[in-house]
Amino acid sequence: MAVSPVDRGDWFLENLMALSAVAILLATYRRFQFSTAAYVLITAFLALHAIGAHYTYAQVPFGFWLQHSFRLSRNPFDRLVHFAYGFLLVYPLRELLRRLAGVKGFWSYYLPVSGILAQGGLFEVIEAAVAQSVSPELGAAYLGTQGDEWDAQKDMMAALAGAVIMAGLIWLVERLGGASAET
After folding, report:
1. Domain count within the chain
2. Tally of CB atoms within 10 A around 16
3. Of 6-10, 29-33, 72-76, where does mean pLDDT reach its minimum?
4. CB 14 within 8 A of CB 49
5. Within a domain: residue 3?
6. Is residue 182 part of a domain?
7. Where are the alpha helices (DSSP H) in 28-150?
8. Domain membership flag for residue 1
9. Three-state DSSP class for 8?
């Protein structure tokens, strides 16, 4: 359990999928190991997620600092983590698709980016369903829309932007270095 999260119910809901993902990684480790780089990226995302879950995404202190510094209308930490989801996890997804499905060339960039967008959309649908099935207060904290009716779409766009940028960087590194960015 977390040490004094802002909202224990929200913390629990926020971590259900993250803990499930970690359990899957542990259960499949003998059959499939990601590269060290992929595990570092996954860990970085999970660390950002843990911070968001601890404070509830709308109340992360660093997000308030960003909001104040850039005169934003809302705490942007949630959006930052959605961007990080795409940016940090497109590489491991690409690695998985290349090694298990033999995906090559253009498709090794396009499919991971599409996968991130699809996962982001699925997450937003699951998030809304969970919010509707729990108490209104907890559901509102879990959704963290901060009054933005387009929050889900903007979150998906942030994840897509992160994935496209990282896929572009992977492509660039592979072209300049002449090697696979998988190791």
Report:
1. 1
2. 11
3. 6-10
4. yes
5. no
6. no
7. 36-55, 61-69, 77-101, 107-133, 136-143
8. no
9. helix
Both structure tokens of 158: 């942030």
Digit-coded pLDDT (tens) for 20-35: 999 999 999 999 999 9
Q: Other C-beta atoms within 10 Å of 9: how many?
A: 16
CA 86 from chain centre, in angstroms, equals: 6
Q: H or E segment at 164?
A: helix 151-177
User: What is the SS3 string spanning 118-163?
Assistant: HHHHHHHHHHHHHHHHCCHHHHHHHHCCCCCCCHHHHHHHHHHHHH
Full residue range of the structural domain in which residue 19 is found: 8-177
pLDDT digits (tens, 9 = 90+) for 87-106: 999 999 999 999 999 999 99
Q: Residue 4 and residue 16: Cα distance in Å, rounded?
A: 18
Determine contact, residues 86/162, Cβ cutoff 8 Å. Answer: yes
**How far apart, in Å, are the Cα atoms of 33 and each of 23, 37, 86?**
14, 11, 20
For helices 77-101 and 107-133, angle between their N-to-C axes, nearest 10 degrees = 130
Residue 134 tokens, joined: 């729990």
Q: What is the pTM of this model?
A: 0.89
Domain assignment present for residue 14? The answer is yes
Tokens of 100: 């298990």
Q: Which three-class secondary structure state does DSSP give residue 5?
A: coil
